[in-house]
Design goal:
four-stranded antiparallel β-sheet, about 130 residues, mainly beta
Length: about 130
């Protein structure tokens, strides 16, 4: 059974860093594009970063560009989201999701992703 598990969330002060992990079990991530999404209370889910299955293409939402970096280690069947210079407005539940559309495909649209993890909470507060 295809399963994604996020980890690495927690409480961090403004300006701090966290690295989220998205680990896959039951399947290999090699053929899947992975997206990171977040949802804060009362707000819509936002696509923030994604990476193609080949790893050659990435894109970011303007809200995180220059601060967050998505990467993948297919040997470890894991995708990462390095988050630096965190702000209180980054507080949200963070989810990863997988989609298989081709080696160069990537998208920040949640409707394109069929498999989702349960999420990990990130809280940025002093």
């Amino acid at each position: 059974q295809l399963q994604l598990v996020e980890s690495g969330g927690g409480l961090v002060q403004p300006g701090g860093s966290l690295r989220l992990s998205c680990a896959a079990s039951g399947f290999t991530l090699d053929y899947y594009a992975i997206g990171w999404f977040r949802q804060a209370p009362g707000k819509e889910r936002e696509g923030i970063a994604c990476i193609s299955s080949s790893g050659g293409s990435t894109t970011y939402a303007d809200s995180v560009k220059g601060r967050f970096t998505i990467s993948r280690n297919n040997a470890r069947n894991t995708v990462y989201l390095q988050m630096n210079s965190l702000k209180p407005e980054d507080t949200a539940m963070y989810y990863c999701a997988a989609a298989v559309w081709g080696s160069s495909w990537y998208s920040l649209s949640s409707v394109s992703y069929g498999s989702w993890g349960q999420g990990t909470q990130v809280t940025v507060s002093s």
